[in-house]
Design the sequence.
């Protein structure tokens, strides 16, 4: 009879352990789901930020091109004035 009681107590311990492990497993599964959602949100944010960066770089390159054109026009005017002065000095 003692052997049966010992076996019964061991079985109860195993059942309690099994239930504890099941609860832990369910909690871990919820954690995984939450982290997967967080990863998806972060990936969406990264994609949005990458697009904003690309847009900004394009905008900046257009601004630089406009500045280059303005500087080029100013240099053309200055060079034209220098040419006029040199021509008047040669006459």
Sequence:
């Amino acid at each position: 009879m003692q052997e049966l009681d010992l076996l019964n107590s061991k079985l109860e311990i195993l059942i309690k352990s099994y239930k504890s492990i099941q609860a832990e497993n369910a909690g871990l599964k919820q954690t995984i789901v939450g982290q997967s959602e967080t990863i998806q949100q972060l990936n969406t944010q990264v994609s949005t930020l990458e697009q904003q960066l690309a847009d900004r770089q394009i905008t900046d390159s257009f601004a630089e091109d406009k500045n280059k054109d303005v500087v080029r026009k100013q240099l053309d005017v200055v060079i034209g004035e220098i040419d006029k002065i040199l021509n008047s000095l040669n006459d």
Q: What stands out?
A: The CA atoms of residues 9 and 15 lie 10 Å apart. The two ends are 132 Å apart (CA to CA). Helices lie at 2-90. The chain is about 100% helix and 0% strand.
